[in-house]
Amino acid sequence: MHQEHFASALATRRLEALLASTPPPSRAGRILVGCPPEEAHTFVPLMLSLLLRRKGWDVLYLGANLPLQNMDLTIGQTRPDLVVLTAQQLYTAAGLLDMAHVLSRKGIPIAYGGLVFNRLPSLRAIIPGYYLGATLDNVSETVAHVMTAPRPQLAQQAVSPEHQRALEHFRDQRATIDAQVWRNVENRDVPRQYLASANASLGRDILAALSLGDIDLLSPDLGWVEGLLINHHPGGNEGLWPYLAAYRDAASEHLDQRGDLVVNWLDRVVETQKERRSTGANIEQARRPTGQR
Q1: What tens digit of pLDDT does each residue of 157-182 get?
Q2: Start and end residues for every CATH 1.10.490 domain found in the chain
Q3: What does the alpha-carbon distance between residue 29 and residue 59 come to, in Å, rounded to a whole number?
Q4: Are residues 109 and 130 in contact, defined by beta-carbon separation less than 8 angstroms?
Q5: 114 pLDDT band (50/70/90 cuts)?
Q6: 234-249: pLDDT as tens digits
Q7: Which of 15, 185, 238, 283 could form a disulfide with 46 if both were Cys (CB 3.0 to 4.6 A apart)?
Q8: Confidence (pLDDT) at 121
C-alpha cells in the first residue's frame, strides 16, 4: 500500500510539472477542471487538464475537494464556458450532482466522468451534464463538441419525491441512529473500535444513494464497511452480519414511514448476509471429518 501511494505521488507530481509547462491556449473558451466536495483523487482530473491543454484549450485546474459554497466566487472570478468534474466514489458523485445543479442554474454546462460512473452506469441518467466516457480516448472530441455551443444539459431522470423525503428524514435522524447502534452492539459480536468508522461510512453512503435517487446503489459500496469489520475481527466474516443487524434495528426504531426505503433495504441486506453466514457455516461443517461433527 505504501509503495502504491509513493508511486501515485510521483506520477501526480510529474503530471503537475507537465501541466505547468504547457504552451499558452490557442482556442477560445475557458474550461475549469476539478473534483467535487470530499473527492481527493486528483490523478484523472490532472490527466484531463493536461490532455485538454495540449489540445489548445484554456484550462484552469482547481484540484481536489472543491467547496460547494465557494462556487459563486470561483465562477465569478474565472467565467468558464465549461466545468469538468470527476468523481470516483458514490458519496462524491452525490457532491458532483449538487455542484451540477448549482452550475446549471447559472447557465454553465458541465462534463463529467470517473470510476463510479463506469461501475454504476445508471448514475449517468441523474447527472445534468455531458458524460465523458469510460476512457480518455474520446474526451477531446466530446469537449470540442460541447464547446462549439456550450449550454447546460437536462438530466434524463429526476430524483423521486420518495427518495427526497427519505433523504431529509434520514439526515435528521442519523446522529440518533448512530448512537442507538452503539447501544445495540453491546451484546453482539462487533469490533467496537471500528464502529465509528463503519457508522460514518454507511451513513454517508446512505445519504449519497438517496441523493442520487436509488437506494440500491448502496449494495456495491458495502465492501468498505465489510472490509473494515472483517479485517479486524477474529472471527473473519462474522463481524458484518451483527453490525448490519444492529444498524437495521436502530433505523427501524428511529425512522418512520418516510424512511421505509432505508429500512427495507437494510432488511434485504441483513437477510442476504444471514443466508451467506448460514451457507458458510454449512460448508465448514461439511468439510470437517465425520468424527468431529
Answers
A1: 999 999 999 999 999 999 999 999 99
A2: 161-290
A3: 9
A4: yes
A5: very high
A6: 444 556 788 889 999 9
A7: 15
A8: 96
Query: For residue 124, with 0-12 CB atoms within 10 Å meaning exposed, 13-18 middle and 19 or more buried, which class applies?
Result: middle
Distances (CA, A) of 283 to 227, 233, 277, 280, 289: 22, 20, 10, 5, 12
Q: What is the mean pLDDT of residues 22-26?
A: 86
Give the distance from CA 236 to its chain's centroid: 27
**C-beta separation of 51 from 22 below 8 A:** no
Determine contact, residues 63/33, Cβ cutoff 8 Å.
Answer: no
CATH 3.40.50.280 domain locations along the chain: 2-148
CB atoms within 10 A of CB 112: 24
pTM attached to this predicted model: 0.85
* C-alpha cell read off for 49: 487538464
CATH code of 2-148, in short, is 3.40.50.280
3-state secondary structure of 268: helix
- pLDDT at 6 exceeding the cut of 70: no
85, β-bridge pairs: 34, 112
- Look at residues 32, 38, 86 and name the one whose alpha carbon lies nearest to residue 62: 32
* CATH 1.20.1740 for the 161-290 domain, yes or no: no
Q: How far is CA 10 from the centre of its chain?
A: 25
